[in-house]
Specification:
241 residues; alpha+beta; Beta Polymerase, domain 2; 2 domains; 5-stranded mixed sheet
Length: 241
């Protein structure tokens, strides 16, 4: 008999101990995917009655960190909209892909259906001004990366990070996909464009391991070519008074 306590067990105990009035709860992230390590935190979305307060909270329970996404029934859709505007879908993906922990009245099931509808509709398209600014910013990072001496490793590594992130966000947006940050950026990038995404990631790795920006600059330029090419002279950003 296996007496090992699973992340799902720990998350459910957290709910029972801290939020006995919860109307639903779901475990997301690596713990729900079976990829959690001993030090992984628990990502838990919790539905609360309307007399509660929506918030994001980090606690420690049973020796394990837990990041809680707490929403009332009345405003959970407002937070879904915020996720949509940010184009990352952090909470949306927890509801879509997570492991249900408790759903005594069916509120979690209905909320998951609403989250999946938002995800299926996709994030908002970038405006023409946002596309133009993205092309300009990526071109600047790419040019600076190419011009930076390998001896200036701090600057080179910083520019490599910014080049990768800007190129990744633009490429994912080009495919109408949801972007990400941290470990989710390469996952979303490869999901949106396996070929160009891999080229960007391998180029970034080459800068980190060999101080060689060539592959990353080439990969960034390939992304720019898809979007209309590098943008330097002629770019203008208009500010409102």
């Amino acid at each position: 008999m296996n007496d090992q306590v699973t992340p799902a067990d720990q998350a459910l105990e957290l709910i029972k101990d801290r939020f006995p009035h919860a109307l639903g709860a779901i475990l997301g992230g690596s713990a729900a995917e079976g990829r959690a390590t001993a030090s992984s935190d628990l990502d838990v979305a919790i539905l609360l009655p309307d007399w509660e307060t929506s918030r994001r909270e980090v606690i420690r329970h049973g020796g394990r960190l837990a990041e809680l996404f707490l929403h009332t029934l009345a405003d959970v859709m407002d937070h879904f909209e915020r996720d949509r505007v940010l184009r990352r879908g952090t909470v949306l993906f927890i509801y879509d892909q997570g492991m249900p922990l408790t759903d005594p009245h069916g509120h979690l099931l209905r909320t998951r259906e609403r989250a999946r509808a938002v995800l299926a509709a996709g994030p908002p398209a970038l405006t023409p001004a946002e596309w133009e600014r993205g092309r300009y910013v990526l071109t600047c990072f790419m040019d600076d990366l190419t011009d930076t001496s390998p001896a200036d490793r701090y600057e080179q590594l910083s520019l490599a990070d910014f080049t990768l992130r800007e190129a990744a966000h633009l490429l994912i947006a080009h495919h109408g996909g949801w972007t990400g940050i941290g470990k989710w950026l390469p996952r979303r990038l490869l999901g949106a464009d396996p070929v160009r995404g891999k080229a960007l990631l391998e180029g970034h790795q080459a800068v980190a391991e060999h101080a060689d920006p060539t592959l990353l600059a080439m990969a960034a330029e390939q992304v720019l070519d898809v979007l209309g090419g590098p943008l330097r002279e002629g770019y203008a950003q208009r500010w409102r008074a």
